[in-house]
């Protein structure tokens, strides 16, 4: 006998797998249509079952940010992984090598220390490790700063044993139409320089969910890494990328106090919703009252400011919240409740939660 | 053979137990001096061993925010617990009752729905459950809004079977000298009204770390619940409550990229440091370069803005960071490394991590 949502203790994280699967299939169809490879980033769900579903839909593999996440996914049978992270230090490179023996693995680098470290760890390996050069095309995080430097690292990679240059990788800025062109021009220049030197640059990997429906506007890109799209969240709603009905992950919470006429307190705080604002006002979208603002969070309390809303809840009422940023919410929960519509199928472990190494 | 910090993989959370124990003892001495009971809030460390150390130092018991946290602590032998949270719904009240059979338990309420629910669950119990009325003395979270309403709920509690009124509880506002007087006046009025009606109000519980050295300025208060003080953090440093050398919890991270002269990237992002700003600029205090600002966090990357600093790290260098808010950092980690100075004693499970029910 299955449970209903009403029987679940709060606060808890709900994932409607019907919605998640529809999100996976919709983006895969788009990728198929525009002849782009899809390599979903599992940081959003951290659940092997959903990674397998993304592969089954037609993805060429998955993306992980950390080796420890990738280990969880390989343990569960995923066989093609790109780790989009500079791997630093001998212990981590040793783990990477062990992982490379268990799946089709590729990795990135944006500096010579990382390249030398990878080569030392893989030097005596029969099959060299494919390495992509990470490029900063405007996001201002990791990545080489110029196409010329990308070419120089490509040469360096091919000059070291145990590794080989395979292509370019970027995590782009916000995803406006202009950004898509900037990203494309940047990567195109780098690829042209590299190929003019006689090196093959067979793979160009970009990513992001805000810009995912515009991925075809960067034609140099061969594969796209979307993460958040599997669940969607309030940040993507605000950007017009999805509607509330496309959001698979919600937080179920209970009203525990109504201290004043315009203030209600829920039992979900920053330990569940997290403090991620992503530039938004308030900490989530309340289904039952979209004009109520989650104005403050402490660790176990959320404050609903009702001054702009006619909605007046009672102690014991429940609300469902679309968080600002679903990926970090996944990282708070040991398990999520798998839903299909109103039916609770069971508790699904978030197997790669907390994997930061 | 013990490890050194240099052998630890990053990112990871370090807790210097020497510093934590000194923090515990210093505040306990203060409480003894001003004749105040100490009931530390375990939300900061979530570790039974440290809860036991707080009790051994002279605390009258501990404070938990959620039943699931209290269950972990009772399992580990802690025997006196105040849960400072409105318990809503039959399943939770049933768990509370089971817990009450295993330790000296008290709880709070700020509304009649909670009071009736507690009474229903405890009605046939020989020994009634002590209940404190939660008062909003200025923090604007939970709590009754007036001393008169506190008195009315005190009467209501004593009118229901299975529960008895024991006193008042507040989580005060920021902790200025003025606030201490406001809190004291508020609680004093409520206690006077309640006692004038012939009810005993034997316990008045306040809390907070920012104001902990001023607790004696609210003489009506009989017990103080400090949480953050056990570790301290950047928010308390900024308030002048502690120095960097009093901070027991730090995050160890590695420089993984130096994309520009004024930008370095560390392998700790919001999955470790969290996005809690607590009104501060930047996401932590970097020991090695206090003038470097952790200007941006994504999930696995932290961006160090070095434009105001002369410090120039290299890829592979390590930094130790005092986070803005140590309590939420504890909630990200399955284990922390127990340090004594530079020596790594071992991995300590954060047994009550993620306990939100």
Structure overview:
Two copies of one chain form a homodimer. With 357 residues, chain A is an alpha/beta fold. Chain A folds into two domains: 19-231, TIM Barrel (Alpha-Beta Barrel), CATH 3.20.20; 236-324, D-serine dehydratase-like domain (Lyase, Ornithine Decarboxylase, Chain A, domain 1). Chain A is built from ten helices and 18 strands. The first copy, chain A, has helices spanning 17-33, 48-56, 67-75, 90-100, 112-122, 147-159, 177-196, 234-238, 270-273, 326-330, and strands at 3-4, 12-16, 37-38, 62-64, 80-83, 104-109, 129-135, 163-170, 203-207, 223-225, 249-260, 263-266, 284-286, 293-297, 302-305, 318-323, 335-340, 343-349. In chain A, strands 1, 2, 11, 12, 13, 14, 15, 16, 17 and 18 form a ten-stranded mixed beta sheet that branches. Chain A has an eight-stranded parallel beta sheet with strand order 3-10-9-8-7-6-5-4. In chain A, helix 3 packs parallel to helix 4 (90-100) and helix 4 crosses helix 5 (112-122). The radius of gyration of chain A is 22 Å and the shape is elongated. The first copy, chain A, starts with a strand and ends in an 8-residue tail after the last strand. The mean pLDDT of chain A is 97.
């Amino acid at each position: 006998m299955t449970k209903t949502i009403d029987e679940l203790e709060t606060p808890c994280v709900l994932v409607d797998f019907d919605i998640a699967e529809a999100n996976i299939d919709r983006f895969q169809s788009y990728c198929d249509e525009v002849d782009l490879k899809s390599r979903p980033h599992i940081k959003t769900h951290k659940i092997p079952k959903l990674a397998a579903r993304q592969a089954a839909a037609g993805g060429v593999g998955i993306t992980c940010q950390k080796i420890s996440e990738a280990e969880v996914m390989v343990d569960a049978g995923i066989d093609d992984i790109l780790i989009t992270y500079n791997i630093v230090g001998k212990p981590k490179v040793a783990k990477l090598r062990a992982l490379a023996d268990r799946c089709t693995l590729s990795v990135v680098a944006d500096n010579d220390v990382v390249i030398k470290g990878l080569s030392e760890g893989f030097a005596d390996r029969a099959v060299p490790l494919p390495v992509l050069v990470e490029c900063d095309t405007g996001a201002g995080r990791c990545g080489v700063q110029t196409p010329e430097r990308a070419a120089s690292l490509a040469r360096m990679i091919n000059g070291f044993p145990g590794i080989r240059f395979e292509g370019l990788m970027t995590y782009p800025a916000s995803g406006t139409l202009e950004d898509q062109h900037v990203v494309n021009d940047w990567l195109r220049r780098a690829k042209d320089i590299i190929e003019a030197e006689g090196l093959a640059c067979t793979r160009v990997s970009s990513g992001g969910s805000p810009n995912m429906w515009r991925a075809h506007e960067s034609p140099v890109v061969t594969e796209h890494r979307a993460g958040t799209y599997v669940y969607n969240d309030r940040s993507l709603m605000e950007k017009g990328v999805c509607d509330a009905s496309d959001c698979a992950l919600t937080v179920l919470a209970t009203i525990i106090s109504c201290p004043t006429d315009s203030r209600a307190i829920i039992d979900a705080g920053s330990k569940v919703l997290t403090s991620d604002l992503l530039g938004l006002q308030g900490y989530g979208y309340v289904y039952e009252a979209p004009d109520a603002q989650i104005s403050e969070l402490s660790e176990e309390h959320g404050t609903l400011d009702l001054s702009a809303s006619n909605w007046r809840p009672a102690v014991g009422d429940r609300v469902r919240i679309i968080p600002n940023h679903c990926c970090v919410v996944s990282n708070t929960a040991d398990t999520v409740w798998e839903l299909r519509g109103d039916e609770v199928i069971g508790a699904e472990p978030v197997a790669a939660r907390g994997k930061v190494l």
